[in-house]
Write a structure and sequence with these properties.
Immunoglobulin-like, 13 helices, 57 strands, extended, cell membrane, receptor protein-tyrosine kinase, membrane, kinase
Length: 951
């Protein structure tokens, strides 16, 4: 290694008088610098420190080191500036020490001869305890050993010079308790790859229980930059120490270790950087590239991929040289990691024509690569037939087809027989019959011949074709040769055969058409997914059919009194009902009951049961539509859930847009209007839309209202009272305006509900205002529409591939890579916030979902701030729409942000709400009710035809 720098004059200590000039030179083998000094002049390998007039404050140890070096190889010199008027120089007046450690009091003596008689005294000059142990150094000061809590306080250093006592300034000793909890250290993924010239950045995330911590890096790169961000939360310090290299070189490859410590110990974490000259794609087949598979068996082909930069495109291509139909492409199932991937292609129940070459290809923006598997499909022998050739009646010919090529055995029986038995005698074992036809990836056709005249007459002959996959046989009776030669041709054979073939083809085409129509039929999917395990970006989902169902949820179906149909989808419907004895024996509770239509098949019944199991698995939370019970025995499956009187949030917001009151100052905007409030009075000009529900089958659509006493034959006084009370509540709600606190409350409640789902490892996959219901007290509840939504007729669901997806609410990784995570739900939540603060407008207004839309999303396009969103709420939306999923906030963090915003606006909103007297008297609503509800508006439709969503 390099020798340490050299300081001139070359002395361990230098003594000067006050006012003397001081010049110190430092030189070395490479660039050097004086540490923590200002008045220096550097000339690459040398640096000069100049002090024109020294004072006692210049007393101290001066250090010189190589630039960008570690602590090794540092040269030092101590400078004394003699000043009889200032015996002591104290650079700092407060020192910290951990209990049990050693405290260094920075009492620097200004001349070495002053330090002959130095003691440590307390501020009040009280005597130190006998067990106090300390030492003095003329260059460092006084060191107090094994400090205890009781020794905290103020101290002075004291020297006796020529009989005169000289005291230093007072120094405060602060004793901190020893930490029991060490720091924790986390680093970015274990391996990084960069191309020469690219920037490299890695973040070390440290959690420390106190401000007493230290972080350092041990790096392969010689020149690095560092930045640090610190926050304090829940009595812990969270530090992000960011190390970066602007442009990496090959020699920067190696280990990068972040080391953090406090008094409780050290912790470290490491990552590896590999610098390459150019990008790469390496493919490694997991199985052998040449495979033989039995007919009807399944096969799995896997390829491990290492690639940098990330892959842009990949897929499988199947070709068969015997087929002229071109190639068939597949995507396979891709798993992602840090610069690695794994793709699996499942080939189920292989048929003969599915043999051939399967090529996996992958490419990034620099290179491409491919690997090819050769698949041969094995099959037992078939079409084994004995015949006498038309051109030679002296031989018997046996034809067989199979893969591998079958061998042929000839047997003879001296009597007429139509079944092989022990009486048969082996005549010939033809282990290598003549190959008639052999093509790659195809069965082999073979032929074996025996002389017929040598075998005699009136015998039965048997030809058996055998390979590893099985055998096939055929019988031939020697007497039939005469009959076959003399028999006249059947003139009816050809017309009958043609008719049969034609009929078969028509039936096959009809079957294929029916199968196509069946596959086009929308399938009911349970949107919510439960994560079982997570490794990086690789999620394993629990099969909901495997979740247990607790019989405690069972409820007697006879205790349900059904009311009106609230809504219907392609597969099921939701019905208002009254449950007697749900929870308590004498309770009467209004509920919503989800059920399948009578036309539902087994898959849809299983899907509804899966939805029931997921709801029971999640448990109860105020901000999700909770399961109350179920009926799974003795009839169709019924799922009983909470009844949400005010329907979905989307309709609620659009309806309330008629009379919203929001103070301009709350929106962080400066408006030209002199009015203090936005008082919106939108005319009722809504068009009919059912958001994907179909009301077919209902004689007239019934808007969601509570079941009144008059609609039930089993009415009672108490039911009448309840109905009247509910009707009054609805009237009161209709008159109550919407304000900013309500919008913030909805936002907060949905965030809390999603945080609950995330804590249960549940991914929603379809979070939107149409999938949130509003219950009493304006409480928002998240739900999963599942079988209730008719996505074929809902414009929010766009055809992508062979599925219909809510593209405008989906995160980019979900749209382009089919990756669904909690972070993708956060993106959808940001879209929902935009819906809330635009009062129910459709996102990306005026934009059609096409290739331009996809390109804008991929490039990071974000919607403008909606009309009623405070600036901080719009900032949350923008954070939710980060293209990098890991940069998006968690639902817990979002909930905290919104709670803070609520505190700011709560007092103002309460002040501006109408008084109870004004509400009871019924504010002037004439302007809201004069226009016809049947007219059309260019804005957002109020989903009046289906106010209650099935969830």
């Amino acid at each position: 290694g390099s020798a340490a720098p050299v300081i001139s004059p070359d002395l361990p200590a230098l003594v000067v008088n006050t006012g003397d000039p001081v010049i110190l030179h430092c030189s070395g083998e490479s660039e050097v610098e004086w540490k923590n000094q200002r008045d220096t002049f550097s000339n690459h390998t040398s640096s000069t420190l100049s002090i024109p007039k020294a004072t006692f404050r210049d007393t101290g140890t001066y250090r010189c080191a190589y630039v960008n070096s570690s602590d090794k190889g540092i040269a030092t010199v101590h400078l004394f500036v003699r000043d009889p008027a200032n015996v002591w120089y104290v650079p700092t007046f407060r020192i910290f020490v951990t209990k049990g450690g050693n405290a260094e009091f920075p009492c620097l003596i200004t001349a070495p001869e002053y330090g002959s008689s130095v003691t440590l005294i307390t501020e009040d000059a009280s005597r130190l305890s006998p067990e106090t142990n300390y030492s003095f150094s003329t260059q460092k000061g006084i060191t107090l050993y094994n400090v205890q809590s009781k020794q905290k306080g103020y101290y002075r250093c004291q020297a006796v010079i020529n009989g005169k006592i000289e005291k230093s300034s007072k120094i405060r000793l602060i004793v901190e308790e020893a930490l029991e909890k060490p720091v924790s250290v986390m680093l970015d993924p274990a391996n990084h790859v960069r191309i020469v010239g690219e920037p490299f950045e890695v973040t070390c995330r440290v959690t420390a229980p106190s401000h007493k911590y230290d972080i350092r890096w041990v790096t392969a790169a010689k020149s690095v930059r560092r930045a640090k961000k610190t926050s304090y939360e829940n009595e812990n310090y969270f530090i992000s120490d960011i190390l970066s290299v602007p442009a990496v070189a090959m020699e920067d490859s190696g280990k990068y270790t972040c080391v953090a410590n406090n008094s409780a110990g050290f912790k470290n974490a490491s990552t590896m950087l590999q610098v390459v000259e150019s990008g790469y794609v390496f493919l490694t087949p997991v199985q052998a590239t040449s495979q033989e598979v039995a007919l009807g068996e399944s096969l799995k082909l896997q390829v491990d991929i290492e690639a940098y930069p990330k892959l842009l495109h990949w897929g499988w291509e199947h070709t068969n040289p015997l087929k002229n139909s071109g190639s068939t492409t597949f995507k396979g199932q891709m798993m992602f990691g840090n610069n690695w991937y794994n793709n699996t292609l499942f080939l189920n129940r292989l048929q003969e024509e599915e043999g051939g070459l399967y090529t996996f290809y992958a490419l990034n923006n620099e290179v491409n690569a491919s690997v090819t598997f050769s698949i041969s499909v094995k099959s037992p022998p078939r079409v084994c037939k004995i015949k006498v050739p038309a051109n030679d009646s002296s031989i018997l010919q046996c034809m067989a087809i199979g893969y591998p090529a079958p061998r042929i055995e000839w047997y003879q029986c001296p009597i007429y027989s139509d079944r092989y038995n022990d009486n048969y005698r082996l005549l010939v074992n033809d282990s290598s019959p003549q190959v008639v036809n052999m093509l790659p990836f195809r069965e082999v056709e073979v032929e074996s011949v025996v002389p017929f005249q040598e075998l005699g007459a009136n015998f039965t002959f048997c030809c058996v074709a055998i390979n590893r996959e099985g055998n096939a046989s055929d019988m031939f009776h020697s007497l039939t040769i005469t009959r076959s030669i003399m028999a006249p041709p059947n003139k009816l054979f050809s017309p009958i055969l043609s008719t049969c073939i034609g009929t078969s083809v028509l039936l096959l085409l009809l079957l294929l058409f029916l199968l196509y129509k069946y596959n086009q039929k929308p399938k009911y999917q349970v949107r919510w997914k439960i994560i079982e395990a997570c490794e990086g970006n690789n999620y394993i989902f629990i099969d909901p059919t495997q979740l247990p169902y607790n019989e405690k949820w069972e409820f007697p179906r006879n205790n349900l009194q059904f009311g009106k149909t609230l809504g219907a989808g392609a597969f099921g419907k939701v019905v208002e009902a009254t449950a007697f004895g749900l929870g308590k024996e004498d309770s009467v509770l209004k509920v919503a009951v989800k059920m399948l239509k009578s036309s539902a098949d087994t898959d849809e019944q299983e899907a509804l049961m899966s939805e029931l199991k997921i709801m029971s698995h999640l448990g109860h939370h105020e901000n999700i539509v909770n399961l109350l019970g179920a009926c799974t025995h003795g009839g169709p499956i019924l799922v009983i859930t909470e009844y949400c009187r005010y329907g979905d949030l989307l309709n609620f917001l659009r309806k309330k847009a008629e009379s919203i009151i929001i103070q301009d100052s709350a929106l962080d905007t400066s408006l030209d209007s002199a009015a203090d409030y936005k008082n919106i009075d939108v005319e009722k000009k809504y068009i009919r839309s059912d958001s994907g529900f179909s009301s077919q089958g209902l004689e007239t659509y019934v808007e969601m209202r509570p079941v009144s006493s008059s609609s039930s034959s089993a009415s009672s006084d108490s039911a009448q009272a309840r109905g009247d009370s509910e009707e009054e509540d609805e009237i009161r709600e209709d008159l109550r305006p919407l304000n900013l606190s309500d919008l913030l409350q909805f936002s907060s409640q949905v965030a809390q509900g999603m945080a609950f789902l995330a804590s249960k490892n549940c991914i929603h996959r379809d979070l939107a205002a149409r999938n949130v219901l509003v219950s009493d007290g304006r409480v928002a509840k998240i739900c999963d529409f599942g079988l209730a939504r008719d996505i074929m007729n809902d414009s929010n669901y766009v055809v992508k591939g062979n599925a219909r997806l809510p593209v405008k609410w989906m995160a980019p990784e979900s749209i382009f890579d089919c990756i669904y995570t909690v972070q993708s739900d956060v993106w959808s939540y940001g879209i929902l916030l935009w819906e809330i603060f635009s009062l129910g407008k459709s996102p990306y207004p005026g934009m059609v979902v096409n290739s331009k839309f996809y390109s804008m999303v991929k490039q990071g396009y974000q919607m403008a701030r909606p009309d009623f969103a405070p600036l901080k709420m719009y900032n949350i939306m923008q954070a939710c729409w980060s293209l990098e999923p890991t940069q998006r906030p968690t639902f817990d963090q979002i909930g905290c942000f919104i709670q803070q915003e609520l505190e700011v606006h709560k007092e103002q909103d309460y002040t501006n709400l109408p008084s109870a007297t004004e509400e009871d008297s019924g504010c002037d609503t004439s302007g809201c009710c004069e226009e016809s509800c049947e007219q059309e508006e260019s804005g957002q439709p109020l989903l009046k035809s289906n106010n209650y969503q099935f969830c």
